[in-house]
Amino acid sequence: MQHVKGRLSSLGDLLIFLDRLKESGGRLELYLPYYNEEIVICFSGTSFFIDGTSTDFLGRKALQVFLEKWLLGGVPPEFEFFEGEEECSSGTAVPEEELFKVVRDPFLEKIKEFPQFFKIENIDVKRVPSFLVAHRTTGRPVSREEVYRYGLTLSDILKYIEVGLISIKPYAVMESFPYRLRLFVQALALLVVIYFSLPLGYLKFNVFKLSEAINWGLRDRILNGGEREELPVKGCLKTRFYLIDNIVVNPGLDGIIGTSDDLSAPLPARGYIPTFALPVK
Prior knowledge:
- By secondary structure, the chain is an alpha+beta fold.
- The protein has eight helices and 13 strands.
- The chain has a six-stranded antiparallel beta sheet with strand order 1-5-2-3-4-6. A four-stranded antiparallel beta sheet has the order 10-11-12-13, covered by helices on one side.
- A hairpin with a 5-residue loop joins strand 10 and strand 11.
- The two termini are about 65 Å apart.
């Protein structure tokens, strides 16, 4: 019995393995890492059997939901193909024509555009499931997970849209926040964007860099007598620190010592223990 394993890159690859399964028998196992879901497919000679070992759906819908989550997550499923005759009876029987119809469903091509949350704008209350009517009445958004929880697939929703039974619009979770809280979150997000847009050097705490420069200055005062020397410490925008007599100086962006943007601090005469002088226990 031949054993092949790997990752499926497209629905076309899945169709190839289903054709092979029909010709030679065996078992095809599919595993979706992101959702931790598995589907097992085998062929009995007349029908395919689908066992969704980690899904609440059975048969055709189990495969349909698996394919939707694959396309939404963008992570290719892992597969193991066991070729050869073996008993095939566990799971739910699905006619061959119906199974291939699921994989070739044109609505799967639109799944990637399906929003995480959506609001129902218009609905035919007599021809759609009651939970969708309830969401339209209360104005509450619907999530993908809720669609699955009520036994529908996202492809079902797309078909309702196609025939005009409902119309939807994407819904941002932010819209559910109170107005003042929404303004606060938006302002906070703007500050975060500005903060991380600044040059990397400005994100460092100068007090820590100055303290590090003082440590090196004390060391060099002992070893080199305090002569002017460039210290191995970088400040904002990778500017350097220097030891001049008993003063640690950062010349600022202009690189000239003695101008208004200098950052300086005298070396302490006593009571300062540089970090490199701490005893090791």
